[in-house]
Write a structure and sequence with these properties.
The chain has 269 residues and is an alpha+beta fold. The chain is built from six helices and 14 strands. Helices cover 29% and strands 32% of the residues. The strands form four sheets. Strands 1, 2, 3, 4, 5 and 6 form a six-stranded mixed β-sheet that branches. It has a four-stranded antiparallel β-sheet with strand order 12-11-13-14, sandwiched between helices. Strands 7-10 form a two-stranded antiparallel ribbon. The chain starts with a helix and ends with a helix.
């Protein structure tokens, strides 16, 4: 009976719980699902991490290849983020061309990683060869709040990325990976963290589940780094200043918790 009511009247179902200061999945109004981070999840990647937000699961992998630099930036490499949302992670995504949601998330990830590292550190042979790093983020299971999980997975993967040593063949000038050489850690200028809050009636609910996303009136995502600098903010509705202010206060606290978890797993990797 409860499941029938939830399907027929999802908003009323949500309100029955919220009036008692609890959410349908048992969390407090400001409660978040358990977060797990597993670094080096893909052995073939230069850096990788899997992140779980409850049942939401995302994996990020960094792959590198040699590329020609641009004329305007002959000594700078590339960072190319790509968010992949296959239909296997949730039936709301369709096969074929990249989903609009995935394209939007890729653009947001690109915004966040701008200036995250010195691209000149990716230079192999000045003016000729640079590293091009593909930052692939794949959603394994979407149970809500995929963007936050994706940002955390990407940050964890980049934090644990090591670039192989290289050598140039004198006869041909060809650049090769030197498996016996010393690897170099990718140095980051900052570590971004995303925190999303869902708005329902007069409540702001952090880390929304998929059920909560379906009935929300709006949402706000704030991205902050490990230096407490706001890197980006996105909202899906015209939210009031009070909601934005409350979100910013919460984001500072939540980001601190997530950064602590990230630092802990990075030290043990």
């Amino acid at each position: 009976m409860a499941d029938d009511f939830k399907i027929a009247q999802p908003k009323q179902y949500q309100r029955l719980f919220l009036k008692d200061e609890i959410r349908p999945d048992g969390r407090a109004l400001t409660g978040c699902r358990e977060v797990k981070i597993h670094v080096n999840a893909v052995s073939s990647a230069l850096g990788s991490a899997m992140v779980c937000y409850g049942n939401t699961r995302v994996i990020a992998g960094i792959k590198g290849r040699f590329a020609e630099p641009t004329i305007n930036n002959p000594n700078s490499g590339y960072l190319i983020p790509n968010m992949i949302l296959p239909m296997t992670c949730n039936t709301k995504y369709k096969p074929g061309y990249p989903d609009d949601t995935g394209v939007a998330m890729s653009n947001k990830l690109n915004t966040l990683i701008t200036d995250i590292t010195d691209l000149m550190e990716l230079c192999v042979v000045p003016g000729k060869v640079v590293w091009s790093l593909n930052l692939d983020v794949v959603c394994i299971n979407d149970d809500g709040n995929v963007l936050d999980a994706a940002v955390l997975a990407l940050s964890a993967a980049l934090t644990n990325t090591w670039l192989p040593a290289t050598r140039v063949m004198e006869e041909t000038g060809r650049v090769l990976v030197d498996p016996e050489g010393e690897k170099t850690r990718l140095e980051l200028k900052f570590t971004p963290i995303a925190v999303t809050l869902s708005v329902f009636d007069d409540k702001t609910l952090p880390d929304p589940s998929e059920d909560e996303e379906k009935i929300q009136s709006g949402s706000v995502t704030c991205c902050i780094d490990d230096q407490s600098k706001i890197r980006a903010m996105w909202s899906s509705a015209n939210l009031s200043d009070d909601v934005i202010s409350a979100a910013l206060v919460y984001v500072q606290k939540r980001a601190s918790v997530l950064l602590s978890v990230l630092r802990k797993v990075s030290k043990t990797s």
